[in-house]
Amino acid sequence: MSSKKVQVENNGATYGVSDIVSPKLSEAKLSKPAKFQSLKTSSLNLSSLNKTSRRKKFTETPDIVCLSHLRWNFVYQRPQHILSRCAQGKRVFFIEEPIFSQEPSGRLNVSQDDSGVVVVVPHLPEGLSEKAINADLQVLINGLFVEHNINKYICWYYTPMAIAWTRHLQPQAVIYDYMDELSPFKGASPTLKNYEAELFCRAGLVFTDLEQISWDWTWGSMMQLIESAIASTQDATVNGTNGKSHISTNILEAPSIITREFLFDYLVVGAGFSGSVLAERLAKHSGKKVLVVDKRNHIGGNAYDHYDDHGILVHKYGPHIFHTNSCEVFEYLSQFTPWRAYEHHVLASVDGQLVPIPINLDTINKLYGMNLNSFQAEEFFQSVAEPREHIRTSEDVVVSKVGQVLYEKFFRNYTRKQWGLDPSELDKTVIARIPTRTNRDSRYFTDSYQAMPLHGFTRMFENMLNHPNIKLMLNTDYREIQKGIPCREIVYTGPVDEFFDYRYGKLPYRSLDFKHETHHTPVFQSAPVINYPNEQLYTRVTEFKYLTGQEHSKTSIVYEFPKAEGEPYYPVPRPENQEIYKQYKALADEKPGIHFVGRLATYKYLNMDHCVAQALATYKQIAVKA
Predict the structure, then answer these.
(1) Mean pLDDT of 374-384
(2) What is the reported pLDDT for 261?
(3) What would the DSSP string read from start to end of 56-118?
(4) What percentage of the chain has pLDDT greater than the value 90?
(5) Exposure of 437 in the CB half-sphere (CA atoms within 13 A)
(6) b/e sequence 409-448, b meaning 16+ C-beta within 10 Å
(7) Which of 620, 66, 23, 611 has the alpha carbon at shortest distance from 300?
(8) Can you state the percent helix, strand and coil of the chain, rounding each to 5?
(9) Are 597 and 610 in contact (CB under 8 A)?
(10) C-alpha dihedral over 369, 373, 374, 375, to 10 degrees?
(11) How many Å apart are CA 334 and CA 327, to the nearest integer?
C-alpha cells in the first residue's frame, strides 16, 4: 500500500502517521505505534479526559464509540438525547461521516461538547475512491483509539456504512440504533443494503424508535439491555470451551459479505410463550436463523416478571401460575428452568368472609355455619342445584351445579366485572372448567404438574432464547423492519384482526389495568390471591411472595381492574365473535409461509401450557413440511 500522510487534529493539535496502521487493533496489545507522532494540544485541552480522577471514574465501564451519519451540532434529536445521558457515566466518542475538501491530507477534528460527548469529525481530500476513503478512515480511527487509550468499548452504530472501516475493531458489544431506514434516502450508497445486512448479523442489540416516553427512561432501559449483552458475550468467552450457547456468541463471527437472499429463515412476531417456543425449536432443532421481534421492551409476553424497586419479584401483568397435565409440555420447559413446587390457593370475599374458591366443603360450612361431611355436602349441592335442559351459557353451567343463590354470591358479579357481560351472555366454556367439590381440597388446580420457575418466568425465557441462531429486537413493530430485513417465513402471535388491518372489523378483547403496591410488612393477606365477586371495582388481589417463595421484609401486591379497551388480553367468547374470527382464519389459511400461533392469533382463551402445546404442535407441522 502506498505511503501517505494522515493527520489528526485536536482543535489545533495535530498528529500523523506515515503508513496505514494495522487493522488488527487488539485490546490486549494496544500501544502507540513508533511512527505515530503527537503534537501539543491548544485551547480546548482534551487531555482532561485522561486525567487520573476522570480515568478512575471510567475504568469500570466501557467507552461508547458511536458511528453516525448525522452531525452532532445540526439538529438535537435521538442521538443527542441518548448519548448526552450516556456521557454522564461513560466516555462517549461521536464519530461523524467525513467532510471532503481540497486539503491534501486527512485529519480528525476532535472537540468536546458541553454535554461531555467528544465529537470527532474526519476531514478527507476530495476525489478519493471508496476503498481509499475507508482505508484513510481506518487509519484515523486507529489513531484516535491510541491517543485516547480506548481499550474497552462498545460500538454504537447509527449508519451501516461505517462497517466498512470499523469491522476490524473488537468491541465488547455491537449496537445498531435503527433510527432511520437509510436506503430510500436520496444519494444513499448502493452498498448500504449489504452493510446493513452485515450489521444486523454483527449486532448483539438492535434498538428502534420507542414508545413516546421520557428519554431518561429510554436510556435506563437501553443500559440494562447493553449490560446484559456485554455479560452474555463475556459468559460466552468464559464458557466457550464447554459447549454452552449464548445469545451473543456470534456477534463478531458473521461473514464480511452477506450473500444469502434472506437474512433470516424465520421472523417470529412476539416473544411470549408461543413465539419463544417456536423460535427455540426452529433454531436448535432445525438449525434455522431466527429473528424474534417484540413491540414491548422485554421478552416473556404477559408472563414477564421482574424485581421491583424494593427488590421483590413481581409479575408485571398479573399472576401467572403454571400448571399442566401434559408431560411433554412440562419436560420441554424443564430444559430451561428448575422448578419450585407450588399449589395455588384462592379465597373469595363473600358476605364479609374469606372462603375457599372453587366452592368446597369448607366453603359451604363456613358460609352457612354448618358442619356437613362430604356425603352431606353432595346432598346439599343436589338440593340447591337447578338443572337446565340445555347448557349454552356460563350461567347455565353454574346454576345447574350450585343453584341461583351461590351463583349470585360467587360468579355473577365477578364475571360481569371480568368480561363486561352477564354470564348469560357468555359461552359455557368460560366457567365450565371451574369445579365444585364435596371434600376439603382447596387447590385451585388439580393438574398433574404444578410448579413455578425457580428463578422466575423471565429467566426461563432468557434461557429459551439463548441460542446463537436467534436474534432479538425489542421495542420494535415488525412492520417497521419487515422490508429491510428479509425473512423466508413468519410466525405471527399477535392479534389476527390487526394483521389483516381489521378487514372484517375489530375482534373484541378484554383488557386489564394493574395497580402495584408495596407494603412495609412481611405478609399482606391470608392467601396468594383473593377474589372480589362483589361491588369492588377490582376483581382480585395477588400477593407475589406466595407464588415465588421469596423471603423479604416487605411484600408487593397487585390489584386487577378489567376494562374494555387497551392491550388485548382475553378474547371474548361469544358466537358472533367466532363468526368474525372464522373470516380472518380463512384469510390466514390462504397465507403460505405465515404461521398464526397463540391466544391472540387464533382467538382462543389459552392457558400457558396450552400455548406451549400449540407451539410444539405447530413446530412439528413445520418440520414435517420442511
Answers:
(1) 93
(2) 54
(3) HHHTTS-EEEEE-SS-TTT---HHHHHHHHHTTTS-EEEEPPPEEES-SSBEEEEEE-TTS-E
(4) 60
(5) 18
(6) bbbbbbbbbbbebebeebbbebbeebebbbeeebbbbebe
(7) 611
(8) 35, 20, 45
(9) no
(10) -110
(11) 10
For 393-408, write each residue's pLDDT tens digit.
999 999 998 999 999 9
Backbone angles phi, psi at 414, to 5 degrees: -60, -45
Burial string for 195-220 (b: 16+ CB within 10 Å, else e) reads bbbbbbbbbbbbbbebeeeeeeebbe
CA distance 273 to 279: 10
Between the CA of residue 383 and those of 116, 357, 387, 397, 407, what are the distances in Å? 79, 20, 11, 16, 14
Q: Which of 533, 577, 317 is nearest to 417 (CA)?
A: 533
118-125 and 13-17 as β-strands: parallel, antiparallel, unpaired? unpaired
> What are the two backbone dihedrals, phi and then psi, of residue 2, each rounded to the nearest 5 degrees?
-70, 145
CA distances to 25, 182, 305 from 544, in Å: 50, 46, 10
Tell how strand 346-350 and strand 470-473 pair up. Answer: unpaired
Residue 300 DSSP class = S
pLDDT of residue 581 exceeding 70: yes
Cβ neighbours of residue 604 closer than 8 Å, sequence gap 6 or more: 571, 610
Residue located via cell numbers 359455557: 428
pTM: 0.64
Please give the C-alpha separations between residue 55 and each of 47, 49, 102, 154, 243, in angstroms, as whole numbers.
11, 7, 37, 17, 37
Q: Is the dihedral of CA 599, 517, 475, 209 positive or negative?
A: positive
Q: Which residues pair with 1 in a beta bridge?
A: none
Torsion over CA: 561, 563, 567, 573 (sign):
positive
User: Angle 273-284/457-465 helices, nearest 10 degrees?
Assistant: 30
- CA atoms of 430 and 428, how far apart (whole Å): 6
Closest CA to 95 of 18, 150, 40: 150
The set of cell numbers assigned to 155 is: 460500538
**523 and 543 Cβ atoms separated by less than 8 Å:** yes
- How far apart are the two ends of the chain, measured CA to CA in Å? 49
Q: How many CA atoms lie within 13 A of 359 on its CB side?
A: 21
**Type and span of the H or E element at 323:** strand 323-324
539-575: string of b/e by CB count within 10 Å (b at 16+)? bbbbbbbbbbebeeeebbbbbbebeeeeebbbbbbbe
What rounded mean pLDDT belongs to the chain?
Answer: 82
Burial of 61 (0-12, 13-18, 19+ CB in 10 A): middle
If you search the block for the grid coordinates 435503527, which residue do you land on?
178
Buried/exposed code over 116-125 (b: 16+ C-beta within 10 A; e: otherwise): bbbbbbbbbb
Residue 397 φ/ψ, nearest 5 degrees: -60, -50
Largest CA distance in the chain: 102
